[in-house]
Amino acid sequence: MGASSSTEQPASAEQRELENIAASTGALPLLRKSFSNLSDPQTNAISVQTLQQCFHLCYEDPVCESQQKPESFPRLLDHLGSSIVDLFFLSEKGGINWLGFLGGYVKCCGRMSTSMSLNILLRIFAMAVKKLGLSSNLEFEPDDADCKINGSLLPSDLLLLLWMCWAMLWNVRTLKSSERKGNLLLPDINHLVLSAVVACAEVDSSFDLWNCNIVGLDVQLPVGKFLNWAITTAPILSDCLTQYVNRRLQISVLAEDEAGSSESISGDMSPNASQALLLTRGRAWAISLAPRSTITEEILKLCFSADIVGTDENLLYRSSTHGKGLNRFWSNVEGYHGPLLVLISANSEDAYQDNNKARKWIIGALTQQGFENKDTFYGSSGNLYAISPIFHVFSPSGKEKNYVYSHLHPTGRVYESHPKPVGIAFGGTTTNERVFIDEDFAKLTVRHHAMDKTYQPGSLIPNQGFLPVEALISEVEVWGLGGKTAKEVQDSYKKREELFTEQRRKVDLKTFATWDDSPEKMMMDMMGDPNRVQREDR
C-alpha cells in the first residue's frame, strides 16, 4: 500500500532524487509509514482533507500571560493545516500521491538555509492570514525559486507569527494524540517583538519601551530587515515547522500510547503562574531561540514544563528566597559543574518623568561552567542577554576570554596592597567590568561595551550611555542547565561538605591520653596563672 506499491514499478529519476533528499533528513521511514497509513488503498493517494486534518491545530480559548492579546489568533490557528497543504503538497485528481507527498515534505522541511526556512514560515503565515480574511503587507514572487518576499510586517503581525511558532512547539511537546484537545498557554513575548521593532523600524529616543502597546503600534517592519533580525537573534525559530510536521506525521502512524514522550500539560495554567519568577516562559523561549547550544534543550524543558514555578531542581538560587549576598549565593551554587543562567533584575530612576516610579529592567548571563572562587577572569564561553523590556543576545566576540569573574573574601587575613574586587562580574577587565554585582547583591554596575572585548558590543539596558550605570538590585536568580547529572554531583558535594563541617565541630576527648594532655586542663592552667613557669619535657 502507499509507498510500498510505488516501489513495485521502476522509480523515476525525480522520485529517486526526492527520496534521497528525504533520506538525508532521516525522515524517509516516517514518510513511508505515514503515507501508507493516510492514503486510500484504492487510489493509492491521500485526500487533501485527510492531510489538512493531519496538520490541523486548534485551541479554542488560549490562556495568555500578556494583557495584549489579538482576538484573531485562535481563528488563525484553524487555517494552519490547510495553509501548509495548499502551499506545498501538490494534489492531482485522486489526491496527493507518493511523489506529491515527498515533494511537499522536501519543500517545507528539507535541508535548507535558515533564511529559506524563515521565508517558508512567512508564506504559511501570510496564507493563513489571507484565509482568515485579514489583510497582509507581504508580497511573494510566485515563480521565484528562492521565494523572494517583499513588503513589511506590523508589530501585531509579528506577535501573531511568533505565537503561531510557539503554538506549534507547544503542540509538539505537550500532546500525545491528535484526538486530544489540550490547553494552550501563550507567553508574554513583548520583549521579542520590541527587539525586532527597535532593530527594523525607525524609532526615536522618546520611544517608551516600558509602556508600549504592541497591538496598536503603527510602525512598519521591512521584511528584509526582519529576516536579518531573526537570523541574528532567533535563528532556531525556523526549526518549529519541521518539528511540527514530523510530530503530526508520527501521531498519524503511532497509537496514542506510543506517540512519544510528550505529556499533556496539567499544571498551573493561570496567566500569573510564572510571573513571580524572572525566568518566565516567554523569556526562557527567547533565550532558547538564540544560536543552538548545549543548553537549548534544557531551556525548552523549562518553557514547556507543567509548572515552571515548581522546577526547584533547576532553580539553584533566588535572592528573595535564599537571602541576598555573595555568601548566600555561593552556598547554593558551589559544587555545580554545568551551564548556569544568571538573571538580574534592577531599577534606576534616571531620566524618568515620575521619580516615584523606577524603571525596571532585566539582564542575564550564561556561563558554560560552574562558578569558581578566583581573583581573575575565567571561562570557556558564554553569552550576555538584555532580557526586559527588550531582548538581545551578545555572543562572544573572540577577542578576549574574560567571560566570568567570581571572587570571595580571602579566608586568611593577609594584607593586600591592591585588593581584587569582591563580587560577580561578566566581561570587561578587573575594576572595569562590563557587568558587576557587589558582594552584598545590593548594587549593579553596567558599563559601556567599549570596556569589554569578550562579548559583542551593544546596549544591555535601554538608552545606555557611555558613563557607567549604577542600579539597585531587586532580584537575582541562578538556574542550573546541566541536567540531572550536574545536580546530583552538586548534591553529593554538599553532603560531603556537611559531613566534613560536622566532623570539624566535634572534639573527641578519647584522642587525648590523660587529663594533663586535654585541652580543658590547658585552659584551666592558663586562667589560673598564665605567667607561671612550667618545666618543658624534652
What does this protein structure show overall?
The protein has 538 residues and is an alpha+beta fold. The chain has 2 domains: 22-252, Recoverin, domain 1 (Orthogonal Bundle); 313-489, no CATH class. 37% of the residues lie in helices and 15% in strands. It is built from 18 helices and 15 strands. It has helices at residues 3-6, 13-24, 28-38, 48-54, 73-78, 80-88, 98-109, 114-132, 155-174, 190-200, 223-233, 240-253, 281-288, 296-303, 319-322, 326-333, 483-505, 519-528, and strands at residues 63-64, 138-140, 149-153, 185-186, 221-222, 315-318, 340-348, 359-367, 382-388, 392-394, 405-407, 423-429, 432-438, 443-446, 469-480. Strands 6, 7, 8, 9, 10, 11, 12, 13, 14 and 15 form a 10-stranded antiparallel β-sheet that branches. Helix 6 packs across helix 7. The longest helix is centred in the C-terminal third of the chain and has 23 residues, at 483-505. The chain is elongated, with a radius of gyration of 29 Å. The protein starts with a helix and ends in a 10-residue tail after the last helix.
Write the layout of secondary structure elements.
Blueprint: H1 3-6, H2 13-24, H3 28-38, H4 48-54, E1 63-64, H5 73-78, H6 80-88, H7 98-109, H8 114-132, E2 138-140, E3 149-153, H9 155-174, E4 185-186, H10 190-200, E5 221-222, H11 223-233, H12 240-253, H13 281-288, H14 296-303, E6 315-318, H15 319-322, H16 326-333, E7 340-348, E8 359-367, E9 382-388, E10 392-394, E11 405-407, E12 423-429, E13 432-438, E14 443-446, E15 469-480, H17 483-505, H18 519-528
Helix pairs in contact: 2-7, 3-12, 4-6, 6-7, 6-8, 8-11, 9-12, 13-14
